[in-house]
């Protein structure tokens, strides 16, 4: 009797795992579809979107150990002719972020106060004891 219950429990877990995986796959496909549709409905040139580098990262959280995908687009500046470097003005590097990105913005300016020309954290918290490191930084 115990063996049958254990088998049923394993089957239930496998079915739930399959359903969870399927739901996540459908969710990612739907997000990709809506992103594509949103680009078209706003009249944005698809070739322009192609100039943005697509970035995909896997990350885990302390409470959720299974890696999660993170998708973003990164606007790459035009390359300087005859040179494979980006034309970045090191005196004009700005940082911003919303929510958790706001938290990262505060963290980054505390860790690297001389790297950024200005910061714009939005809806994020920071450590007030680090303010003395970046009091000169425009917000």
Automatic annotation (TrEMBL):
UniProt GO MF annotations: serine-type peptidase activity
Domain of life: Bacteria
Keywords: Signal
Domain Peptidase S9 prolyl oligopeptidase catalytic: 84-133
GO BP annotations, alphabetical order: proteolysis
InterPro entries, sorted: AB_hydrolase_fold, Peptidase_S9_cat, Plant_Biomass_Hydrol_Est
Pfam families: Peptidase_S9 (PF00326)
Protein name according to UniProt: Prolyl oligopeptidase family protein
């Amino acid at each position: 009797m115990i063996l049958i219950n254990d088998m049923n429990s394993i089957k239930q877990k496998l079915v739930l795992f399959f359903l969870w995986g399927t739901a996540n796959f459908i969710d990612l496909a739907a997000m990709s579809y809506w992103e594509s549709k949103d680009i078209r409905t706003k009249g944005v040139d698809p070739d322009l979107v192609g100039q943005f580098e697509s970035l995909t990262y896997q990350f885990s959280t302390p409470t959720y150990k299974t890696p999660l995908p993170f998708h973003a687009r990164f606007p790459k500046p035009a390359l300087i002719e005859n040179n494979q470097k980006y034309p970045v003005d090191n005196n004009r590097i700005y940082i911003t972020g919303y929510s958790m990105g706001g938290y990262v913005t505060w963290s980054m300016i505390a860790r690297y106060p001389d790297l950024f020309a200005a910061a714009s954290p939005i809806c994020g918290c920071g450590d007030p004891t680090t303010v003395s490191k970046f009091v000169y930084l425009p917000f």
